[in-house]
Amino acid sequence: MENSLDPRINRLSLIKNDGSFALEKGENWHTYEVFHLKKRGDHHKHVGSLHAPTPEIALVFAKEQFGRRQKCVNLWVVPSREVYTFNMEDEDMFATASSPEKKYRDASGFKVRDKIAEYKKTHAG
Amino acid sequence: MKKKAIKDLIYKMADDELIIGHRNSEWTGLGPIIEEDISFSSMAQDKIGHALALYTILQETFGEPDPDTVAFLRPGKEFKCCHFTEMPNGEYDFSLIRHFLFDHAEKIRYEYLESSSEQNLVNLAKKITGELKYPVLHADTFIHQLGNGSEESHARLQTAINECFDQSLGIFELGEFEQELIDNKVFPGEKALRSRWFEEITPVLEGAKLKLPDIKNEEVGFGGRKGHHTEHLQPLLDEMSEVLTIDPETKW
Amino acid sequence: MYGSSAAFDTPKKGEEIVEDPKKLAIFEARIERGEKIEPNDWMPHEYRRQLIRMIEQHAHSEIIGALPEGTWITRAPGFKRKLALIAKVQDEIGHGHLLYAAAETLGKSREEMINDLINGKSKYSNVFNYPAKTWADVTVIGFLIDAGAIVNQLINATGSYGPYCRALERICYEESFHLKQGHEGFVYLATGTPLQRKMLQDAINRWWEPIMHFFGPPDKISQHTEKLMKWKVKMATNDDMRQKFFDQYIPKVYELGLTIPDPKFKKNDETGKWEYTEPDWDRFFEVINGNGPCNKERLEVRRWAEEHGRWVRNALYDPKYKSVMPLA
């Protein structure tokens, strides 16, 4: 091929693309979900995923892809297949969690100020 | 005299970091998987960053020219890097082995410098203690896993280390002021560094089922500390200065 | 429930997919309300297909985009420019990584995407098929091309697909550094010696056509995008983005006394729109179809990386770990 403008590329020996190249399924290994801890005291937070062959290498990769650009004190990696999840479509299962009928377990569901004021008024003096 | 000795030490450390940092930076976009591109690039940045920190010490405390001038406009024969850092990247196996061997030596060197009599080096060493953990973790993890990986990966690593091990000993070539550095407690010396390095790399290689090669020629990689270099350095230096030399007086 | 596989059937060519109207209505209502679509949600085939195509192209653009600038890492003048450039090129790879992961959640594996890239089946941004001839080109890419990318990405970050939006959020944050470092290098040349100014003006002239091509063909000849806009896959038309880019960045070129190599180029104060000579759109299609100055080299380099890294990947491959799609 012609000389590249890239000296780095000229140091490689490139071969013509003849359409024969193909990665095999699984060649990029499998995915891990990455959880990032910004500072002590916080929860780890899911920040994305990466491909790695083993948990050790997943951590090595996670450190740079998810820890290099923001404050970070710790990371977790978990194989994607080990994460169990609800279906997003079952979102309605959670819908009544904060509905008015469930105020009995919310601080706002308990009001006694009026009662106390009333009591004070009638028992004044 | 002590000043001259310290300057010599800082120059060789900085030049090593600058050159291997450039070599490693060439992997950006070419690594075996994109995750590894990102990791390799970070380590290259850190190396070049250390070089900058060292040249800055030379400028501020030892009256040398500014870091850009020193790093990018100095003649090749004034460079003190070892031959091992100059070698082209070759395949990932060689680059990985070089990174493993060099970075262990680098880490130990800075550990020693944490108790140096030269305060500037103490400060730098303490600042980057944490930063030096990652490249060693990275190298050890890959060496371990590829050494225990396939027949091919094991053979490739063994061949790479067989071929470059003698040359890697050039890292420990004695400088002109070796005894003075030791006497003045600046640095306990290359011999001490080399024996700790052996202690550190041996178990990692064993864990990876790799054999430490027999040394055939101790001094095959020597010369760099005295300004004698392989034919690979000058073309790289020319490349590094290509833009700056269009007009070295102006700002880019 | 175990939800990390998002298998989907690819419709055969010419086959019309009839979507379940009830599901489609729920899907469209969700988007209408401004809610995001997540990987396991039901979605129309066409939505999935277009998103994969778009996110994948975006990912490829980042990975291939790392090459023309990567060229200049060893040559970058001085420590500051050099460290910034390595970090920037590294970010591009990092962006490719995030985007591949977003596309994977839609059911296409990274291996398939890379294969389609190398074999020319999927595209990437045309600008990366041009060479960066001098250092000034690097500053033009770092400033103007990145600025174009930011215009595009900021608007796409408001789209409907959750994983893509999340990836773009981080990408946009990092791109703001890219733009600043590109602009600084650009300004240093513009305010430097006559030779530096000339280098820069020449680079702008060289890059003008690729920049005009950057947002794609004019709306009047580009494909029908109504449905994609309704589904918030496409958030703005090519022409709108181009105008927005001109509005934000052309003044920053003019304030340095630099020129745009198009005598017709000016803002029409009445319409508020920039007027320009249409670039050669045949040339655009020619480059996108593989005949630009650097297409071959770019893909050969990518293939080199994949081939020479194969022994590493194979050595650590363990068939007992079946790969599944990432979660989010």
Fold and architecture overview:
- The complex is a heterotrimer of chains A (125), B (252) and C (328).
- Chain A has helices spanning 7-10, 55-67, 113-122; strands at residues 30-37, 45-52, 74-79.
- Chain A is α+β, with helices and mostly antiparallel strands and 125 residues long.
- The termini of chain A are far apart.
- Chain B has 252 residues and is an all-alpha fold.
- Chain C has one domain (33-309): Ferritin, core subunit, four-helix bundle (Ferritin, Up-down Bundle), CATH 1.20.1260.10.
- Chain C is 61% helix and 2% strand.
- Chain C has helices at residues 21-32, 45-70, 78-104, 110-118, 135-156, 162-190, 194-214, 226-230, 238-254, 281-291, 295-308, 310-316; strands spanning 266-268, 273-275.
- Chain C has a two-stranded antiparallel sheet.
- In chain C, a hairpin with a 4-residue loop joins strand 1 and strand 2.
Which features does this protein show?
heterotrimer; A: 125 residues; alpha+beta; Ubiquitin-like (UB roll); 3 strands; C: 328 residues; mainly alpha; Ferritin; 2% strand
Span between termini of chain B: 37 Å
Q: Regions of chain A with pLDDT < 50 over 5+ consecutive residues?
A: none
Question: What is the H/E order of chain A?
Answer: HEEHEH
Classified by CATH, the class of chain B is Mainly Alpha
Question: What level of helicity do the residues of chain B show?
Answer: 55-70%
Q: What name does the CATH topology of chain B carry?
A: Ferritin
Q: How would a crystallographer describe the biggest sheet of chain A?
A: 3 strands, antiparallel
- Major sheet of chain B: none
As a percent range, the share of helical residues of chain A equals 10-25%
CATH class membership of chain A: Alpha Beta
Assembly form of the protein: heterotrimer
What's the arrangement of secondary structure elements?
The complex is a heterotrimer of chains A (125), B (252) and C (328).
Chain A (H helix, E strand, L loop, with lengths): L6 H4 L19 E8 L7 E8 L2 H13 L6 E6 L33 H10 L3
Antiparallel strand pairs in A: 1-2, 1-3
Chain B lengths: L1 H24 L8 H29 L4 H6 L10 H4 L5 H22 L5 H10 L4 H15 L3 H18 L9 H6 L6 H18 L25 H9 L11
Helix pairs in contact in B: 1-2, 5-6, 5-7, 5-8, 5-10
Chain C lengths: L20 H12 L12 H26 L7 H27 L5 H9 L16 H22 L5 H29 L3 H21 L11 H5 L7 H17 L11 E3 L4 E3 L5 H11 L3 H14 L1 H7 L12
Antiparallel strand pairs in C: 1-2
Helix pairs in contact in C: 2-3, 3-6, 5-6, 5-7, 5-9, 6-7
